[in-house]
Design brief:
single chain, GmrSD_N, DUF7834, globular, alpha/beta, about 525 residues
Length: about 525
Amino acid sequence: MLDLTKSFKDILNLNLPLAIHKSQRPYVWDTDKVNRLIEDLEDFKKRCDKKSFNSLNYYMSTIVLFKNTEGKNQLEIIDGQQRITTLLLLDYFANGAQSILKSNPESVIFEYSSNISAQNIQKVKLFLKQDDVFNRLLSIKDIINKRLIFTVVEVETEDEAFTYFDTQNNRGKKPSIDVVLKAVHLRGIIKDEELQKECAEKWESIERFAFHGINIPGESDGFLYPFIKCFLWRSRTWKFNKASFSNDNKIENTFSRRLSSSDNNIIGFYPQNNIFNNQELQIIDGSLFYTPNPINISNLNKVENLPFQLRQPLKKGLTFFLYLEKYALIYKRLFTENENEYSEEINLFKTFYKKIYNSHSEYMKQYYMLCIMMYFDKFNEVNLLHFAYALDYLVGAERISNYYIFDVKYKNINNNYNVLDAIQMAYSPKEVIDFIVNNKEIETKKIGAINKVITTYLYDTKHYYEGGIKKQVPYRITETATDNENEITKIDLIKELNQLVEKRKSWLLNKINT
């Protein structure tokens, strides 16, 4: 391992061209972050000028390079591509024809396969083109050209690169958890560069979900990391009445540190039932006979149909990438707008979800969606709509009885009712539905306070089950009687809403028993 201090320009004049390793996430710096870097360099220049420190360098931390001499013959950035990409853009605008990208383009082979990178780079370029920003770049041109330095760690093998990467991570230098997971699992793919490339592309395709309007309610950090945090991590750890809040360390433990390495890129499946599941044996001439259902082998070629389970043991490498892709595709199937590609049962569920959960608490949506994902994973589409009704009976009971909904609410609800474990342990959809419907505590929930969200929820629910004209939320709630048809007293509204609450179970039973 070679450990040197080099200037920014020197890094781009090494013996081999600089490229981005396949483990790296897209370029994600926005204009605010670029602007902060410019401000830091301006402040550095100002302080140096004040004290005549004209040769003092600005330290840009460490970059890790893997010397890939097998075929490609290039230096690949394992850690540092966000900073290097940004500096190349600053250099391009500050130095024009003398910039690295103009004067020495063969020194850089940066290939961005993700639309995320392209869009963010374009936004930064437009920002740097602005006259005031451009003039600021000119003022720090000398800093960019001569006084930016890095510690450059150059390694001969990918294993050595990732070992260094992990060591730095454990010492407190924290790359984002999605970068860590991607790097760990790419390294877990054994001696198959083409497979590594395919898995990196799978990862990036899931990252792009956010650009197609597929998001996690209440989360603004793209799609992939919130999906891992709110769905995959919770589905695996919210059990035995011990639900807890996540953090990067817990997520890394679950999906990296506690996983063993795979041998020869073998994928492990753990079917929860054997071949006799839900089948009948016949006695013919005194002997037992079993006729298995036919298996459509072509279905196994679709990642979505691979027989993973949300809570099954995982290993590093290919297994994790396929596991992630399968459940991201299931999320897309269940919670996106497109109805043409899916079955009638899923489309009916989507209609219900869209009508009832459109304006609800983001935490309420997250928990509802998590339970739907767990159910679908166990029973697929069988009685999905009936389960959705029953789940709403439970989840909605908490909505109507609480003026505010905080994130701790549904963590505590799962510890109380333990729906995820009930789904996991059930043999049939009916068991899960009965588990919810027969819970007497749900029937005790009443309107404690009123607000627009609670009122809208109950009006939407009534309209879904009973039809007719949907009632509008009163314009104003008063303390005293009023003749205005757009107003209602608080007492009358609470009475009306509690009457609807009392109908919730009968609405549910009428639907699931017909």
